[in-house]
């Protein structure tokens, strides 16, 4: 989708876990997000610098809904203050 056609995110929800079990759980968590109202998109992120860490970053048109995260996963919601 061209940048000018994208809806800007109002909130970003981050969920982070460590280890293979968390990676599998966060993959399933990612798959479940698309059915939520206001969902704009999400990514499952890995880093070679931190191979045990898995992160799901999801973008929301309004307030992020209450999202039950898997056991052992930490999560935060941020309000978008600026984007390019």
Fold and architecture overview:
This protein is an alpha+beta fold and 84 residues long. Helix content is 17%, strand content 40%. The protein has a single domain, classed as Alpha-Beta Plaits, CATH 3.30.70. The chain has one helix and four strands, in the order βαβββ. The protein has a four-stranded antiparallel sheet with strand order 2-3-1-4, covered by helices on one side. The longest helix is centred in the N-terminal third of the chain and has 14 residues, at 20-33. The two termini are 15 Å apart. The mean pLDDT is 91.
Helix/strand-derived category reads alpha+beta
Query: What is the overall pLDDT average?
Result: 91
Estimate nothing, just give the exact number of structural domains. Answer: 1
Radius of gyration in whole Å, from Cα?
13 Å
Q: Which range does the strand content fall in?
A: 35-45%
Q: What would you say the CATH architecture is?
A: 2-Layer Sandwich
User: What does the overall shape look like?
Assistant: globular
Structure annotation, total helices? 1
Low-confidence stretches: none
Biggest β-sheet strands, sense, barrel: 4 strands, antiparallel
Strand order of the largest sheet: 2-3-1-4
Task: Output the CATH topology.
Answer: Alpha-Beta Plaits
The beta-strand count equals 4
Distance between the termini: 15 Å
As a percent range, the share of helical residues equals: 10-25%
Protein name: ABM domain-containing protein
Domain ABM: 15-63
InterPro entries: ABM_dom, Dimeric_a/b-barrel
Give a short overview:
The protein has one helix at 20-33, and strands at 11-18, 39-47, 50-60, 74-79.
């Amino acid at each position: 989708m061209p940048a000018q056609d994208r809806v800007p995110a109002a909130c970003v929800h981050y969920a982070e876990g460590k280890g293979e079990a968390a990676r599998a759980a966060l993959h399933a968590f990612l798959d479940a997000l698309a059915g939520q109202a206001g969902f704009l998109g999400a990514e499952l992120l890995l880093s070679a610098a931190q191979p045990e860490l898995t992160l799901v970053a999801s973008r929301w048109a309004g307030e992020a809904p209450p999202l039950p995260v898997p056991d052992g996963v930490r999560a935060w919601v941020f309000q978008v203050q600026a984007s390019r």
